[in-house]
Design goal:
The structure holds two protein chains of two kinds.
Chain A lengths: L9 E14 L2 E14 L3 E5 L6 H6 L9 E10 L2 E2 L5 H7 L4 E4 L13 H12 L4 H14 L5 H4 L9 H13 L5 E5 L7 H18 L2 E6 L2 H7 L2 E6 L2 E7 H6 L4 H8 L49 E3 L2 E4 L2 E3 L8 E3 L2 H9 L2
Parallel strand pairs in A: 3-8, 3-9, 6-7, 7-8
Antiparallel strand pairs in A: 1-2, 1-4, 4-5, 9-10, 10-13, 11-14, 12-13
Chain B lengths: L1 H22 L1 H10 L2 H18 L1 H4 L34 H37 L1 H16 L2 H15 L11 H14 L1 H15 L2 H9 L3 H37 L10 H8 L7 H29 L6
Helix pairs in contact in B: 1-2, 2-13, 3-5, 3-13, 5-6, 5-8, 5-9, 5-11, 5-13, 6-9, 7-8, 8-11, 9-11, 10-11, 11-12, 11-13, 12-13
The chains are: A alpha/beta, B mainly alpha.
Chain lengths: 350, 316
């Protein structure tokens, strides 16, 4: 992958990102050689089971990997600058101003002791050097924009006085305060009930177009990405399985894991009951231990199509058509032999 | 009956909302605190002590060093209209000495806890924030301080310090002995505060809203002082209130053993001067004993009420 020249019109361009966690039990290879890119104004859906490294690979964009994690190697180009070359002071100027984040749990992501106006205003005072008066005016404007009625009074309220949907709207407003170029949304609707989910997703879509932002949407909900994403990247156990436009992923999934994920989605045009043939399919097995990930293709332990070579050879990503990348030996990927023992021995040496 | 109960519930809720508009977490805590009877009793007792301490010259019937009762052969006199709590063996008016003992007690309690809080919050907060090996080391250091029999160390240090300064300029510092006690109580009283601060920092640095603040671009200082420390304050306030009572008690013990400041008027010292005459003039010993009891009880009940107010889940 490193051989392909960098495309300058991409807003973000992540190359060979590896994030490992150095825990007492061993090195957890949470993200192990991930590439993805995103053009300005587009939405990328990062999809995968829990523990597939999707959240970590988006946090890497802010360089906020929780300890004991470390970004080992790779390049993260954002607006054509490598974020890994920046120092901490430069990063704090990017966080919240150019790249903003929306969290999974709105109930916990607001500071309980400051009023909404205070904690949102603080950001503007810090990033845009606005005065208190101006800042709270801008905050009120944004609160109105995210559909909060009576913003002037809401400014004085505290997080615990707002409902869950309202809090998430405040979080969306907080993310958009400085009109960032990129919004990272980490399961923004998982903790909300279904009607509120739909509202928040509509709101994100609307604001994204209004502000010409790009968005990385991290989720395990195929329904959400189907609705929001232009491109979808499917991750499994710290590696990317398949990247394509949303349409292609849903119409012609290439990778067995993508196909399996889509199978697990309940469909309205099918009836499910207790008997064997009409149950909702599940992917058998569990996501592997990332301290000693399976050799070769990481999905081979659960893959219905796995052959003998899958456990030996680590597949490399190939383009099957324009913009459709897949990494599966049965779909034409080639790769180098990896011996399981050799790999873990070198890791233990670290 | 039910409608009445509902009405109270509703009015309480409305009050909660109205209050929280002003102060958020602190106001909510106050709302809960107000409903706690023992906590309010504690607050009342503490307020009484503060009031007495602030206005002692106006409340006390005599000057604290007035021994004129001796001249009228009225030392060791039982309570009379002239001396509401009697006089002690040296002719002092017990009530006046008691009232002038209140500021000393509060200075000792607040002063030592101020020293202890500064050390404890800095060390504990730092320890919790950095985590890892540094945390391990600092916590072992804290435990080392916890296992020292501090009472004996304090007695030894007060005595040594009292002797060392003789003949030097330091001798002329007013209330030197009392200041020494305050500082030493603080220097040895920080471990519980450090442990709470560490636990809170450890919990809060991983809190989602702190993570969110980092993602917004808040720097390390902002994270610590704007986001972590204010959220750790409720737990710290509880342990500090408890510590104030504890240091007042310790100072009384030190003074009772005769290691106190001879120039300061302290309740422990009153006990020390009068316990030998317990049979002849019991009022002179019982009164300072009660004063210590009430003050320490007040701070402990206050701390208890604060715990319930800020961590309501512990009790429910």
């Amino acid at each position: 992958m490193a051989a392909t020249p960098r495309n300058n019109d991409h807003l973000i361009d992540i190359r060979n990102l590896r994030v490992h966690f150095f825990t007492g039990a061993g090195i957890v290879k949470a993200v192990d050689g991930v590439d993805y890119d995103l053009k300005a104004g587009e939405t990328l859906g990062l999809v995968g089971e829990s523990g597939s490294g999707k959240t970590i690979s988006s946090l890497a964009l802010l360089r906020l990997i929780p300890r004991p994690g470390k970004i080992l190697s790779g390049e993260i180009f954002f607006e054509n600058e490598n974020l890994l070359d920046k120092n901490e002071a430069q990063m704090t100027k990017i966080r919240g101003k150019r790249i903003a984040m929306i969290f999974q749990n709105p109930a916990y992501s607001l500071n309980p002791i400051y009023s909404i106006g205070d904690q949102l205003g603080e950001i503007l005072m810090w990033h845009e050097k606005l005065g208190r008066q101006e800042a709270s005016q801008r905050v009120a404007e944004l609160l109105r924009l995210v559909g909060i009625t009576d913003p002037a009074n809401r400014l004085k309220q505290f997080p615990h006085e707002l409902s869950g949907g309202m809090k998430q709207r405040v979080c969306v407003a907080r993310a958009l305060l400085c009109k960032p170029a990129l919004v990272l949304a980490d399961e923004p609707t998982t903790n909300l009930d279904v009607t509120i989910q739909a509202q928040i997703l509509d709101l994100l879509q609307e604001l994204k177009e209004k502000f010409h932002m790009s968005m990385v949407l991290v989720t395990h909900d195929m329904g959400v990405v189907a609705r929001m994403a232009d491109h979808i990247t499917v991750m499994y156990a710290g590696r990317i399985c398949e990247t394509a436009t949303a349409r292609t992923i849903f119409r012609e999934p290439m990778h067995p894991y993508t196909a399996a994920l889509l199978e697990t989605m309940p469909r309205v045009d099918q009836s499910y009951s207790g008997d064997k043939n009409s149950r909702l399919t599940v992917i058998k097995g569990r996501i592997p231990n990332l301290i000693e990930p399976p050799s070769g293709c990481r999905f081979h332990t659960r893959c219905p199509e796995a052959g003998e070579h899958c456990s030996r050879i680590m597949p490399e990503t190939i383009a099957v058509s324009d913009g459709h990348m897949v990494s599966c030996l049965n779909r034409g990927s080639t790769g180098k032999e990896t011996s399981r023992n050799g790999q873990s021995a070198s890791d233990r040496g670290v | 009956m039910t409608t009445e109960a509902n009405a109270t519930v509703r009015s309480v809720k409305r009050k909660d909302l109205a209050g929280s508009k002003r102060l958020g977490m602190w106001a909510l805590g106050w709302q809960r605190f107000k409903r706690n009877k023992t906590g309010m009793l504690g607050l009342f007792l503490v307020c009484v002590v503060f009031f007495v301490a602030l206005f002692c010259p106006f409340i006390a019937p005599y000057d604290p060093s007035d021994q004129s009762a001796m001249l009228e052969f009225r030392s060791k006199s039982p309570p009379t209209w002239k001396n509401p709590l009697g006089t002690d063996r040296m002719g002092y008016d017990v009530a006046s000495r008691l009232i002038y003992g209140a500021p000393t007690a509060l200075i000792v309690g607040l002063g030592s806890m101020l020293v202890a809080s500064v050390i404890g919050i800095i060390l504990g907060g730092f320890s919790g924030y950095i985590g890892g090996m540094g945390d391990e080391f600092l916590m072992r250091f804290t435990e080392f301080f916890l296992v020292i029999p501090i009472f004996i160390v304090i007695l030894v240090m007060v005595r040594i310090f009292g002797v060392v300064v003789i003949g030097t300029w330091a001798e002329r510092i007013p209330y030197l002995n009392l200041s020494t006690i305050v500082v030493i109580l603080g220097v040895f009283g920080w471990p519980p505060i450090a442990r709470i601060a560490r636990a809170e920092f450890l919990r809060l640095k991983e809190a989602e809203f702190v993570e969110a603040a980092r993602c917004i671009g808040v720097g390390r200082m902002g994270i610590i002082f704007r986001h972590i420390l204010p959220n750790a304050m409720p737990s710290l306030v509880v342990i500090i209130a408890l510590g104030i009572g504890g240091s007042i008690l310790l100072e009384a013990m030190i003074s009772f053993l005769g290691f106190g400041d001879p120039k300061a008027i302290s309740w422990g010292q009153l006990l020390y001067f009068n316990y030998e005459f317990l049979k002849i003039a019991p009022w002179a010993s019982i009164a300072p004993g009660m004063a210590i009891f009430i003050t320490v009880l007040g701070f402990n009940l206050l701390a208890d009420g604060l715990t319930d107010a800020f961590n309501p889940r512990l009790k429910e």
